[in-house]
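Data deposition worksheet. Section B asks for the primary sequence of the deposited chain exactly as it was used as input, without tags or linkers unless they were present during the calculation. Section C holds the resulting structure in token form. Section D is free text for depositor observations; keep each observation to a single sentence. Incomplete worksheets are returned to the depositor.
Section A, Depositor: J.P.
Section B:
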Amino acid sequence: MKNLILAVVVAAGLAGCAGTNFNWNNARQIKEGMSEQQVLSLLGKPNMTTSTPNGLIYVWSFANGFTGSARSVSVVMKDGVVVSAPSIPNSY
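Section C:
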């Protein structure tokens, strides 16, 4: 019975959130010229990668179904290097 209750609580917690739970302070550290590995070590694996003529766009997003909050950030990479870093205000 305890295992069933634990399973229900864990499932409810996982169902309430989606995406990669990245940190704004880590995202602010992303700068042009950083390597792909440096970015991944700060933000984790992106939720989506899109290929464009300007390079690969890596997107991290996170939504919390319990609070209704959502956030997203993207970085443009070309040849494994950041060519466009996000500009994130300190109010986030």
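Section D:
The radius of gyration is 16 Å.
The chain is about 30% helix and 35% strand.
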